[in-house]
Amino acid sequence: MEQGVTGGRATLAALEARGVGCRIRPSLSEVGLRLLPGADAAEARELLYKALNGLEPHFSVFLEGVPACFMPDAWDHALYRKAPGRRYFRIGACARCRLAALCPGLERGGPFDGPAKKLLAPVLPAPSELVLELTKRCNLRCRLCFASDSAASLTLPRIKAALREAKALGVRNVRFTGGEPFLSPLLPRALAAAKDAGFYVLVNTNAALDRPDLFRKAAPLIDNVLVSLQAADAAAERASTGGDFAVKLRNMRLLRAKVPVFRLGTVASKNLIADFPRFRSLAARLKADIWELYRPMPDGRGAVRPGDFDLAPAHLKRLSKLAAGTAAPRTLIANPAPLCLVPPAERGHLLGAAFDDGHTRLVLDPRGFFKPSYYIEENLGKSLKAAWSAPYRKKLTSFRWLPAGCRGCRWLLKCLGGSRALAKAASGTYFAGDPWL
Ligand code: SF4
Ligand code: SF4
Questions:
Q1: What is the pLDDT averaged over residues 84-108?
Q2: Confidence (pTM)
Q3: Which residues contact 332 (CB under 8 A, 6 or more apart)?
Q4: What CATH architecture is 129-427?
């Protein structure tokens, strides 16, 4: 059932007066935003971005009827299809646009067949994030970990060269990870170099090193930290990671106090589902901004984790209900899974494959080459620019070989058709359907 927002009519009227149409479908937890005919497109776009940011934590938001290049930072929200009987044309940006294969182009006589065309920019002509795996070494021995053991580490000149290349390409985010990045003596200088270059700086850590001095020194250079959380008490921490829970709690509180965005991340397991209330209450006590849950992925060699981490679609459905029913912290299933496994009203809690499989970011392996994701260890070469244009990455992120149901699906840009790494683990090739489809 579609209906307007009761109690929000004044807001809707104000949006419409400034060129933005808004339709809420409460039963689906879905909002459609659109550019109204005759609107000032530049002004309406600012408002659309603001509305999107405000609504996204609560609804699945679709940008209806505008090409993704109108709001390239929100490309995954675009719902733009060829309309029967209309004619379309291409512009220069289409040649560098990641969505060119799905998009019909611009509509003849439409809002962008004129001066507003200059507002358009291609979608993802470069990665939005550079991920630097400083080292493969780790202080923990987590049962779920996909990091391969290796002595390889990035050098400072290699890190700086990657940062320079990323800057020149227009990459905005830089993430430091590992192994455990706080084991790298280069982390402080690498963080400072990224900060000086103006990047938004993210760090993934297990926060389990008994070196509060390192966390205290690094915190002012970090915009966004993600801490892995695999246990809700000391005994479980020892069993699942070998770490000291008291040390971890102290470091997490230190990071929470000093870093603007503090996230927690938990690889989903049968134990997590059974013990969800205790994990949730810990995440709330730690004042996490976001709690991310991950579908277990295979390691770099394609081995799937057994036992507690061997999940089935029914587990994802249960987890999705639990995530959707969690008011605080905001709880998301943050890696690839077919969105159509869960009811539409819960899909706003699933981030799909955007951050994996080479869709929006590339990872610099400690051995010095770029690869599509943590667990797809295909060598894409030593240059970020060349890796982004590599035929292999393009093939990996292409929509062409997805099942026909995916290609026609309105959720495609949010979901991206599930996991390539798990397709490989199940079928021996990345270019197959997700085994949960
Ligand atoms: S293919 Fe062209 S028209 Fe379509 S979103 Fe990309 S730049 Fe815009
Ligand atoms: S893109 Fe495919 S896997 Fe994803 S929701 Fe649509 S049909 Fe399902």
A1: 96
A2: 0.93
A3: 290, 291, 292, 293, 323, 349, 350, 351
A4: Alpha-Beta Barrel (3.20)
